[in-house]
Design a protein that fits this description.
The chain has 378 residues and is α/β, with parallel strands linked by helices. It contains 13 helices and 13 strands.
Length: 378
């Protein structure tokens, strides 16, 4: 079996058919027709003002901001080359090797790699079906004296869980009381399947020590390498003073110009609506296939995002993965997403990369592999 024959449920990126080649060509033509050479310079440290103004208007329209909240303002935004770069920059500016930080348990496994690169001590905080548990967070804040909390509040990677509105307020209050910076990875915030999640954390209190990270990777195309940090100007200033920015200038100004045109022309709006419909259909198909083929699988159907978090009681996900590879299907085992030895019977499945037929076939292969593992156990 060749690599191309394997269905990789670990693939957390859109399928090629979903990438908006024609829309980006139209936007690029629109942008270049303006013949503004300023976009080809190093650029302003926080990003080009026209782009940030356009992005601020877009986010204001799409964020489910609380009644009475101020709209997103351009001065609250900094351009990045995506969430991973933003997270690395924040670690550079706000932490030092040996510092303790808190994360949800489980959390995005590659964020853990970024934290290891910076020599940080990572402590996991348990979650339930409403997100991070306030009692566990309070205990960790008191016991470990962290400098930073990393959270994925909406349609979390890997679990798909969304932090409830009440807990968002509680998390911000607890961290403020301990002077802990909150870093909210909100790359899935706009990818709901009909019901918007609670507000972005940075919209709840414009003066709080909160940095919300957003990206066009999940709502447009990963190869753009373009995103943003949303937070108080005083916090953003610490980021723009980084040597990386001071030396290289604004991050990705040319692509920012193209994306400004994409938003202005309404193409991002229509593209996002289409993506949400496709992902909702794929998520539903994956969940239906799991119910049919693996009846004892435990999971919650996602209401947005990219992932289904599955528990198969009594089965080692690591052992299942070895057999599944030979059956033509792979996934990420749950232990990749944790800081300690837990979640051994869980796996993360992504529905973003494959069409419905491939998702159903992948689950059939997974079910066959599961049957083999169980037969081997006797």
């Amino acid at each position: 079996m060749t690599t191309s024959d394997v269905i990789d449920f670990g693939n957390g990126q859109p399928s090629l058919s979903l990438l908006p080649v024609q829309a980006l060509r139209t936007a690029a033509d629109h942008f270049l027709a303006q013949a503004d050479a300023a976009w080809l310079q190093y650029g302003a440290d926080p990003g080009e003002t026209p782009f940030r103004e356009t992005l601020a208007e877009f986010l204001t329209r799409h964020y489910a901001a609380p009644v009475g909240a101020s709209p997103v303002d351009a001065v609250q935004l900094m351009t990045t080359t995506g969430n991973s770069q933003a997270l690395d920059l924040i670690c550079t500016r706000f932490t030092r090797p040996g510092d303790t930080i808190l994360v949800e348990e489980p959390t995005y496994f590659l964020a853990l790699e970024v934290f290891r690169d910076h020599g940080l001590h990572v402590v996991g905080v348990p979650i339930d079906d409403e997100g991070m548990r306030p009692d566990a967070l309070q205990e960790a804040l008191t016991a470990h004296r962290p400098v930073l909390l990393y959270t994925i509040p909406s349609f979390q990677n890997p679990t798909g869980i969304t932090l409830s509105a009440a807990r968002r307020t509680a998390v911000l209050a607890a961290c403020a009381a301990h002077d802990v910076l909150v870093v909210a990875d909100e790359v899935y915030q706009l990818l709901d399947f009909g019901v918007a999640p609670p507000p972005s954390l940075a919209t709840l209190d414009g003066n709080a020590r909160v940095l919300s990270l957003g990206s066009f990777s999940k709502i447009c195309a990963p190869g753009l390498r373009l995103g943003w940090i949303h937070g108080a100007p005083t916090l953003l200033e610490q980021c723009t003073r980084a040597g990386l920015v001071q030396s290289g200038g604004g991050l990705n100004p040319f692509t920012s110009g193209v994306m400004r045109s994409l938003i202005t022309l309404g193409l991002l709006e229509s593209g996002l609506a289409s993506l949400k419909r496709v992902y909702a259909d794929r998520a539903g198909a994956l969940c239906d296939a799991l119910r049919d083929a693996i009846p004892d699988a435990e999971f919650t159907a996602p209401q947005g995002g990219y992932f289904v978090w599955v528990r198969i009681p009594g089965v080692s996900a690591a052992a299942l993965l070895e057999v599944a590879r030979r059956a033509g299907v792979t996934f990420h085992a749950g232990r990749r997403f944790v800081t300690r030895d837990v979640y051994g019977d869980t796996l993360r499945l992504s529905f973003a990369h494959y069409d419905v037929a491939a998702l159903v076939l992948g689950v059939e292969r997974l079910a066959r592999a599961l049957a083999t593992v169980r037969a081997q156990r006797g």
